[in-house]
């Protein structure tokens, strides 16, 4: 279903932080942050940047009980858990740091954000593989739609995985935060609306993805998701696909390739070839690179808009990192694009978790393409497709 309160939300602030060169003393201040885990520092710094861009009154216009937080992460606490394990094994639990020990629970990363900004309406943490950050946006908007709050601070944070952990060769380290508020509130306080975001998530079982009809199942679910988000099939749509090489990732890639007007194939990362270190760093300054991590001269000139971003209708595949940060970073980049056509960020995990975020950049986006689908479960509805196993929620 479409809910007007959530459909009326706009993004007014974006904050991005990369671990490269990060200094908590510069980003946050010298007092109160030294003993926080790195991922907590990144998240607080990204939120600070987002609120600074949103301007005075972004949160303060409403009471603490009307402000909510939603955070996604896959690996914020993994390095800390390793450190705790080593300490307990070597000398005993009594030597654990009192300042760090509470962060054994991954929920504390979002709780620290809520404490920092007096967010008492709700505080949600998501850990679904790869889609956690987009699920944070989806559920946060859903909570706004049901009246649990009127302002939302949402995003994702990750810390690099320790050596030997699965995915350590594809590290993500940094954070992205978005401030969302009603369009009317932004207008009333003179804040610029950067655009709208809306998310639909669904599940594509790996064995279904690996079947002969895996791409067809993925295509049906993607079509349903975009339709539920209000996108009209006759409108141009730029797509960024953050995918790995798992059967689920390849099924989604093949489904998207079938729609691509530019002849992009599932294994084509870029016309000039792709290497793992060419991936854009989440949280990098948005003007430093084109949204897909390539400079404009890496593609044919007619495939790029004058400002160096992909033209409408372009489909780009971005290699997924180990966590949930890259898809949210791509959403942030899409919000910085010209206000001409919608942009979809699609991501999927090997486990089957899949999500689509429809981004409508610009100060006056079409409300019809920004309404979130807030139905849940696997019952009938616009996101249901593919029998009993391929389901949308």
TrEMBL record:
InterPro entries, per the entry: Beta-ketoacyl_synthase, Ketoacyl_synth_N, Thiolase-like
Annotated segments matching region Disordered: 284-304, 357-393
Keyword field: Acyltransferase, Transferase
Pfam families in UniProt: ketoacyl-synt (PF00109)
UniProt-recorded Gene Ontology molecular function terms: 3-oxoacyl-[acyl-carrier-protein] synthase activity
Superkingdom, natural source: Bacteria
Enzyme Commission designation: 2.3.1.179
Gene3D superfamilies: 3.40.47.10
Biased composition (Gly residues): 376-386
Domain Beta-ketoacyl synthase-like N-terminal: 12-162
Keyword Acyltransferase applies: yes
Protein name: 3-oxoacyl-[acyl-carrier-protein] synthase II
